[in-house]
Amino acid sequence: MWTRDKGPVPGFAGQCRQLTEARAEFAWLRAGSQTVQQQALRDFDQAVKNFFGGTHRRPTWRKAGRRLGFRIVGRQATQIRKLSRKWAAANIPKVGWVRLRLSRAVPAAKSYRVTCDSAGHWHIAFAVVPPPIPGPGTDDTVGVDRGVTVAAALSTGELLVCPASSKASLARRKNLQRRLSRSRRGSRRSQKVKATIAKIDGHDRNRRKDWVEKTSTNLARRFDLIRVEDLRVGQMLRRPRPKEAPDQPGSFLPNGRRAKAGLHRGILANGWALLVQRLEDKAPGRVQKVPAAYTSQTCSACGYCARENRKSQAVFQCAACWHQANADVNAAINIAAGRAVSARRETPVRVSLKREPQLTTSA
């Protein structure tokens, strides 16, 4: 471990020299690939720079069995053989030729990363920046409102729902979690149950990523300008702080943690942050973030903003002009027009309209 009396902290070059000395001393370290070990040192050096730069958190220790993976760079990364239309082989250092199933054509990459997910499946990801998707050139603008019940509502009136798990899958997962709570920690039974739960979660994650990729590609091809809400998803997923009772020190009041946990699950299940990230990757310079303040309470027809306009999750009815529409679509129209009403901005003048009384005749 480094201490202050040993001098300045060694950088990447100094750590590589230490790695060479350690490989000459320990046989188990020499049995591994030096390229992979150097890339791990490079990742650690970048993580330390990000921490001191204030953009990331402090680097943590790598836990066994979690986030397994390594990166291959240089000439070794180009040793890829295509065996058939769906199969290929990669020459991994210290391992040999490993067969892999192709999900797409192998690009001309200079590096790739081999990772293992929580279900025990190994993947190879090639580091290639794909070209951006060109716009249609029609100057069409669309607003995207993200929600929990409806994953993405467009200003065109379309309601996009992210595919969720079936009831049978949820029931099975709940049953497995109960079995895991009754099993002994670290036993073979608990490891087997954890692997089964990880497979179910992997299916849900792949289903969500597939929906995000298809939705982002469709929006990037159809519209020239895409406007979304400027939401800080990371801060929205934080746990609420406990509220201490003023008259009873040491006791805490209910702070709605259970209800907020349900909101967290809905946000993560619909991929709010991933959708905007993929839109910015596929349509760079064509994604604008609009402040989300009062977009769901403002009428898209007359501009009147009031809390009573939002009748329910799906119903919007303006209290001034009686305009009625889907609440998510109404918010998406405001986002597309950039109608973000701030707290300091003047509220639109309420239009006083009265309905004509209906005359009824009796026989």
TrEMBL record:
One of its GO terms (molecular function) is endonuclease activity. InterPro entries: Cas12f1-like_TNB, Transposase. Pfam families: Cas12f1-like_TNB (PF07282), OrfB_IS605 (PF01385). Residues 130-238 form the Probable transposase IS891/IS1136/IS1341 domain. Residues 172-194 are annotated as: Disordered. This is RNA-guided endonuclease TnpB family protein. It comes from Kribbella yunnanensis. The keyword Secreted does not apply. Residues 172-192 have a biased composition (Basic residues). In the C-terminal section; belongs to the transposase 35 family. The lineage of its organism: Bacteria, Bacillati, Actinomycetota, Actinomycetes, Propionibacteriales. It comes from the Bacteria. Residues 272-335 form the Cas12f1-like TNB domain. Keywords: DNA recombination, DNA-binding, Endonuclease, Hydrolase, Nuclease, Transposition.
